[in-house]
Amino acid sequence: MTRGDFLGFGVMGVIMGGIITVPAAAFLLEPIINIDILGQSNVSDDWQEVGPVADVGVEEPEVFIVEFPLTQIYGDQEIQELSPEVPRSQEEFDLTNAVWLSWKAPILEQGDQGNSGDTIGVPERPAFLDEKREGFTPEEISEVEESLNILSNSCAHLGCPVRWIVNADGEGEFLCPCHGGIYDINGNWYGGPPPRGMYRYTQFEVRENGRLYIKHAYDVEEGIPGISTQEPYVV
Amino acid sequence: MIGRLRSQTIETGKFLADWMEDRTGAVTQLEHFLYEPVPKRGAWLYTLGSATLFLITLQFLTGILLLFYYVPTTDHAWNSVYYIMNEAYFGQLIRGIHYWSANFLLAVIGLHMARTFFTGSYKAPREINWIVGVVLLLLVIGLAFTGYLLRWDQDGFWASVVGIKIGSYSPFIGPYVTHFLLGGDVVGPATLARFFALHVWLLPAMIAPFIGIHLYLLRRHGEFGAEFEYTDRISKLHERQREEGYRQHEFEDDEEYDYDDELDEEGGTTRHRRDDE
Questions:
Q1: What total number of domains does chain A contain?
Q2: A61, A99, A185, B165 from A190: Cα distances, Å
């Protein structure tokens, strides 16, 4: 075998190998290419309504179900609108998220992640909410936005849904049923395996009608593995 | 009358077996495959491998049956499982077998591994078989994990979320593993489709050749037992085979079938093994 043969063989081998493997690999790894390289999401980027903020009490957080339209495979918008006169799969596929809303409680003593939780005071609910449920002024809107905790129910440990429970002493906490992660009413770490506090929605706005709207985006902390560490999305 | 019928049946059977043997050698292969000396002490423990094989076969068979009714889409998966459990004839039985034999499979694999470990059967020359066994264990765990989501109920859904999120903790490739399994950035239709593909095609297709290699290597080196029992029994087996060979030789004197060659080969391996252990 001459050097020319060897080079020719190598070049042909790379081309033939590429023809065989690249399409199959790209076909399989589509989500990795879309999300991790191109930074796209399957979740709709529109504002979704959560609910009236006046429903959230002082003592306990309130849970709201929010559905984000999802464009995956047969849920893809383009496919669903393909033939409106002969509907084939005219169903909307949603990602159902439970959102916990609570009023921020003042942190009296900063805790230490992994050792002790925060010492907190009584949650502070804007006083004007007792009188009106809608028709907020811009000042009132910003007051509500500043004093609201908007938390995902997906546990920061392994993603199970957390719930609010009140223990025998009358103290409430978010508890994860899977491995016993505990968070306080602010959603900050209080006990158990989670490496951080609950995920917070980072894009939200309260509108004049007294309702909260959010987008599917979370605060992802560097160095803590979540469902994704590169894009601000969790389950 | 009945006696004649019986002898006729036996004759036909023999004729068919000989016919097959002449053309494919299947009968000899089958005998070679079925006869295996097993250590006398703790003989029952040596059935755990067969139990595993039996349960995996059950998984394949009941899995094929379930595929006739199961629909792998997010809006129909749970309904189709409900249909199998409540409407389809014997659906509860077939899905029950699939479910329970999957559970028992993991338990039996654990016992099988423990037996292999405590009898030292992973030692030379059987290391490769241990490694292949570990690959099989990982594939079975993968099958158990992907099968759980297919029911698309709360139980399977959250178990899969936890499993996927465990994958996200893997160093460097965490997000890639997660997004590969999710088929997107959240759990949705793509996740179910992917898990379905992994569960019914990719992983079974991978597990089948590894089972073949596992069995081939087992037949090559035999079961491991106390040396005494082992050599004693294997020599008895070869003696019996030799006798059978001679007997056949007398019948088929004119045929060109060299049993001595085969015997030498077999004898050779026995001697070799004796040297080894």
A1: 2
A2: 16, 19, 10, 21
- Whether residue A75 sits in one domain with residue A28: no
Containing structural domain, residue A29: 1-40
Q: A89 and chain B: CB distance < 8 Å anywhere?
A: no
| Cβ of residue B154 closer than 8 Å to a chain A Cβ | no
Contacts of A158 in chain B (CB under 8 A): 161-162, 165-166
Q: In this complex, which of A31, A43, A230 lies closest to B183 when CB atoms are compared?
A: A31
Residues of A with Cβ-Cβ distance to B195 under 8 angstroms = none
**Peptide bond before residue A31 is cis, with ω within 30 degrees of 0:** no
> B15: buried, middle or exposed (CB in 10 Å: 19+, 13-18, 0-12)?
exposed
Start-to-end CA span in chain B (Å):
56
| Neighbour tally for A186: CB within 10 Å | 24
Q: Are residues A58 and A147 in the same domain?
A: yes
| Shared domain check, A64 and A18 | no
pLDDT in tens, A64-99: 999 998 888 887 777 777 777 776 666 678 888 899
Partner residue facing A70 (CB), from B164, B165, B186: B186
State whether A160 and B162 contact (CB < 8 Å).
yes
Query: Structure tokens of B162?
Result: 């936890």
Query: Do residues A28 and A102 share a domain?
Result: no
> The pTM is what?
0.80
Amino acid letter for position A86: V
Q: Which two tokens stand for residue B143?
A: 């099958």
Mutate to test the interface with A, among B160, B186, B198 (most CBs of A within 10 A): B186
CATH number for A57? 2.102.10.10
Is residue A113 domain-shared with residue A79, that is, in the same domain?
yes
Q: How far apart are CA B113 and CA B48, in angstroms?
A: 9
- Residues A144-187: tens digit of each pLDDT: 999 999 999 989 888 889 999 998 888 889 999 989 999 999 99
Are the Cβ atoms of A235 and B186 closer than 8 angstroms? yes
Q: What is the pLDDT averaged over residues A118-144?
A: 88
